[in-house]
């Protein structure tokens, strides 16, 4: 019989190894894992329960340090209340269910809002594998617009392969390119649409490595650069002056035989930062906003978290 912590550690490892990937999926997986853990553990007291779920939360938080969807999901779930053990258990489970429902509804709503910017005949370029960016593309296509998509491979983990499989299944005409070919095709593109791992207080975007170079090419070509992001991907920490940590992943992801080389090292950052000046609009579930409004989103939507950090 699998113990609750073993199940949670299994989810944590699948997040760390990127078996579970994509900011929204990571957040929902973490919320679900915390809920299952809380409902399964045997605790003799409320104090013991609190200690165990805090330990479980820390395990999840340490898996992907950049993804604010993960940290915000965990924090939201951990805002449970209860004067006794069973009330606390029920409150945590309710928080997890509420987060997952909110996340799914946000993806659908962003698809509706973002698709209004897409016109019949448009060519869209997307990078990595973002469920919310794909929601915009699919909603536009389902509304009858004749669109074409160019997708990057998104090396070194090739998340773009997941993207083209989804697009193909929906019947959307798609072309796959290597990441370095973006500058070659950018003049054909009407919109770049990407997801987000983090939106900072000044409206800058932390996303899959290569996003910043695409944004620069789009700016040069005067091509619209659209970010699709749920509000829980906005970072309260950045208001308090904290920098977003950029996750460095294994060299073997880039070059599996690196250990055989004596004088070569591999640098493998998972994310880069796109300055807000290269972003035309951020499509959220509360509307399409300019990046300069990010501070207000954090203050209004995540204000409770901000106040806790000030105390």
TrEMBL record:
Pfam families: IF-2B
Protein name: Ribose 1,5-bisphosphate isomerase
Species annotation: Candidatus Methanocrinis alkalitolerans
Further information: Reaction proceeds via a cis-phosphoenolate intermediate.
GO molecular function: ribose 1,5-bisphosphate isomerase activity
Alphabetical UniProt keywords: Carbohydrate metabolism, Isomerase
Catalytic activity, EC: 5.3.1.29
Catalytically driven reaction(s): alpha-D-ribose 1,5-bisphosphate = D-ribulose 1,5-bisphosphate
Family: Belongs to the eIF-2B alpha/beta/delta subunits family. R15P isomerase subfamily.
UniProt cross-references to Gene3D superfamilies, sorted A to Z: translation initiation factor eif-2b, domain 1, Translation initiation factor eif-2b, domain 2
Lineage: Archaea, Methanobacteriati, Methanobacteriota, Stenosarchaea group, Methanomicrobia
Binding residues for substrate: 21-24, 64, 207-208, 233
SUPFAM superfamilies: NagB/RpiA/CoA transferase-like (SSF100950)
Keyword Ribonucleoprotein: no
Its biological purpose: Catalyzes the isomerization of ribose 1,5-bisphosphate (R15P) to ribulose 1,5-bisphosphate (RuBP), the CO(2) acceptor and substrate for RubisCO. Functions in an archaeal AMP degradation pathway, together with AMP phosphorylase and RubisCO.
Residue numbers annotated as active site: 128, 197
